[in-house]
Write a structure and sequence with these properties.
The chain contains 4 helices and 5 strands. It has helices at residues 62-78, 129-138, 153-159, 164-173; strands at 53-59, 82-88, 92-99, 106-122, 145-150. Strands 1, 2, 3, 4 and 5 form a 5-stranded antiparallel sheet that branches. The termini are far apart.
Length: 174
């Protein structure tokens, strides 16, 4: 008889609900949709300070490049260097072909995917830059290619995926 009844005795007890606090918290507003990535004005810098600088990490191993980008981001935060943004570039795929000894036909050997992460920083002083670069280079893992350069408009445009069909339709409309 006890298994069939669905009556719960403890709901009526005076201690029921102790420890609940959700009703005390303010109601959260629903999350709004992210806006399109907008082109910001590029900070050129001054005589003693670099402007926007991109630290680009490239590797065939996604896990390795992801963790190294995370490390660089946390390092910059710890050294109070402002990180504008940290993002991933579109993955590039390369096919490696080889030619057989007595043949004219190329055969597929491997497919290599290149993963790239970018950490964009600003306000890096010219006296601290070599120290930061040495720290990053000393902790750079094997197989990760590192590139540090100033941020340009071409870097921003390369970040976005090109859509040739859409561009073709826009060209036909105009």
């Amino acid at each position: 008889d006890a298994l069939v009844s669905c009556h719960r005795h403890y709901k009526s007890r005076p201690t029921h609900g102790i420890g609940r606090f959700k009703y005390l918290l303010p109601k959260e507003a629903p999350k709004k949709k992210k806006d399109k990535v907008q082109m910001r004005e590029i900070n050129v810098g001054t005589e003693h300070e670099y402007g926007d600088v991109n630290i680009q990490m490239t590797s065939y191993d996604m896990c390795l490049v992801e963790h190294f980008a995370q490390y660089v981001h946390k390092l910059c935060n710890r050294l109070s260097i402002r990180v504008n943004e940290s993002y991933a570039m579109p993955t590039k795929t390369n096919e490696v072909l080889f030619l057989e000894e007595r043949g004219s036909k190329m055969q597929l050997d491997a497919v290599l995917t290149t993963h790239q992460r970018v950490v964009q920083i600003s306000g890096l002083s010219s006296t601290f830059a070599p120290i930061l670069l040495e720290i990053i280079q000393s902790s750079q893992p094997e197989g990760v290619h590192l590139l540090v350069k100033e941020h340009t408009e071409a870097d921003f445009k390369s970040r976005l995926k090109s859509r040739p069909e859409l561009e073709e339709l826009l060209a036909q409309m105009n």
